[in-house]
Write a structure and sequence with these properties.
By secondary structure, this protein is α/β, with parallel strands linked by helices. It has 9 helices and 7 strands. The protein has helices at 22-32, 38-52, 58-66, 74-91, 94-105, 118-128, 157-170, 187-190, 203-211; strands at 8-11, 109-117, 132-141, 144-150, 177-181, 195-199, 215-217.
Length: 219
């Protein structure tokens, strides 16, 4: 069923709503739970360097991140996730939560768009009261997590293409649209919106935002 709203407010998660990267936090959490070793954490840091440069192979990265989880039962995963979300709550940026509240009060539809996988992103979207979310989807096999992805990952140009698909499916428009992101990977998405906002941006996004007269939130 198609719907309309008074406007659309789109938020990135990592280093936008969250003071950190949720998958990096999850990696550290797994290390603390003795599910992975120090070598895993070090390899993840290499992946994040690639992400910052806009050249991350998300298929290889997500397969590596998810591999420790495929041996765990659904009950074990939910138990870990519940404990992890307590840490996520503490890492949320109050200023950005207030920004969400302002959009909600204005009757805007709140949409989370993040490159993070759905195992982590969907619970956070629910926790924060988003109307809907777009993320990188993990392929399931008989209800269990695999190391494969399904559909177009929500990273870089993928965020923009997934948003277009969502718009066609829901009937929303970008006539009155706001978007918040922090990195070079958010440029394709933010460029589609009427009111793009760079949140404590990385150097590439900051330069682009200034060149195109986008609003910048320094936090």
């Amino acid at each position: 069923m198609q719907t309309t709203s008074h406007g659309l407010a789109i938020f990135d998660l990592d280093f936008t709503l969250l003071e950190g990267d949720i998958e990096a936090m999850w990696s550290d959490f797994m290390f603390g739970q003795s599910l992975v070793g120090q070598d895993f954490v070090e390899r993840m840091r290499e992946y994040y360097k690639d992400y910052d440069l806009g050249r991350l192979d998300i298929y290889d990265y997500e397969a590596y991140l998810l591999r420790p989880l495929i041996k765990l039962s659904a009950a074990e995963l939910q138990g870990l996730l519940g404990e992890f979300l307590k840490r996520v709550r503490l890492a949320l940026r109050p200023k950005m939560l207030r920004q969400m509240d302002r959009h909600r009060a204005g009757g805007h539809t709140l949409l989370l768009i993040t490159a993070a996988n759905d195992f982590l992103a969907a619970p956070v979207a629910e926790l924060l009261g988003f109307d809907d979310h777009i993320c990188t989807n993990i392929k399931r096999s008989e209800g269990q997590i695999t190391t494969e992805l399904e559909g177009v990952p929500a990273i870089g140009d993928g965020k923009a293409s997934r948003l277009r698909q969502w718009l066609s499916e829901t009937g929303h428009s970008l006539t009155e649209s706001w978007g918040y992101g922090d990195s070079v990977n958010d440029i394709p998405l933010l460029s589609l919106l009427k009111h793009p906002v760079a949140v404590k941006p990385d150097p590439i996004l900051e330069a682009y935002a200034r060149e195109h007269s986008w609003k910048i939130i320094s936090l």
